[in-house]
Design a protein that fits this description.
Strand content: under 5%
Structural class: mainly alpha
Distance between the termini: 54 Å
Shape: flat
Number of domains: 2
Largest sheet: 2 strands, parallel
Helix content: over 70%
Number of strands: 2
Number of helices: 11
């Protein structure tokens, strides 16, 4: 009986200590997570104020820039069009007019775009805060993989956003803005419609550029193999050509300029899948 009591006394303190340790770890993680959320929100707020105060650069140069003939992409396309005698590549400044129909439309749009700009400018700091918490919460062996995934994913998204802003957005805005069913109908586009078109194109193109990273994870875990991607190549090529024909002016040059990067992304995804797919087979 004394032995039983002594063994009970020896086992109870570790159990209580383990529970207390878990409780302390939980509150420690929660406290760190709270500050890793608050600090990026403060950074986004401050940068949003900076963007709000620079209205001319934010709207006249960045947001409304792709519709102007002196935009770098539009000027380059116009020179190419003149050299190849393709008039559809030169856009007129008077073709598209943006209007506001709501009393608070311009002010609310100013706030929305300022917040989006603040978030974009704070992306490096957001990545740092995410990585800081991930390195604290996750196993040390996964630190390098997590860090590489965050940097690669952010780089691909920014590359896709830049590609969309400097190529797809000008082509889409100028084509839709200069398309007429009749000379009696003028294109007076609302501010919200224009902003929605620009932001959606930039966002979704950035997401599409994440395809190589997505294929890396799917192939590494044995979900999608390179053989499947090779078999679906013809279907994807047709889909890419259709998408390029929809978002670009009706000429072959513009469609090729949009289709080739998307096809290149797919081929890169196939190569990545082949490289990663061999590792699980070799280990097995």
């Amino acid at each position: 009986m004394p032995e039983f009591v002594s063994s009970k006394k020896r086992t109870e303190p570790p159990t209580s200590s383990a529970k207390e340790e878990k409780r302390r770890n939980f509150w420690l993680h929660l406290e760190k997570l709270r500050w890793h959320i608050i600090r990026p929100l403060i950074a986004i707020s401050l940068l949003s104020v900076v963007a709000f105060l620079n209205r001319h650069i934010l709207f006249d140069v960045i947001i409304l820039g792709p519709k102007n003939p002196d935009f770098p992409t539009n000027a380059l396309l116009c020179r190419i069009g003149k050299a190849l005698t393709v008039d559809g590549l030169c856009f007129q400044d008077t073709a598209l007019k943006i209007i506001n129909v709501n009393m608070s439309g311009q002010f609310m749009t100013h706030l929305y775009i300022s917040a989006m700009a603040g978030m974009v400018m704070a992306i490096p700091y957001i990545i740092y805060e995410v990585w800081s918490y991930v390195s604290f919460a996750m196993n040390i062996k996964s630190k390098r993989a997590a860090y590489s995934s965050i940097i690669t994913g952010t780089g691909l998204f920014m590359l896709g956003a830049a590609f969309s802003y400097f190529l797809i957005v000008p082509l889409t805005v100028n084509f839709l803005g200069t398309y007429f069913v009749s000379n009696e109908v003028q294109n007076n586009v609302t501010l919200s419609s224009y902003i929605g078109t620009v932001t959606s194109l930039v966002l979704w193109t950035g997401v599409v550029f994440e395809l190589p990273l997505l294929m890396y994870f799917l192939s590494k875990h044995g979900i999608v193999g390179p053989e499947f991607l090779v078999k679906k190549r013809r279907i994807l090529i047709v889909l890419i050509v259709i998408i390029a024909a929809i978002i670009t002016p009706p000429d072959v040059i513009s469609q090729i300029m949009v289709s080739l990067p998307m096809l290149l992304l797919y081929e890169i995804s196939v190569l990545v899948a082949k490289m990663v797919w061999k590792k699980p087979l070799a280990e097995e």
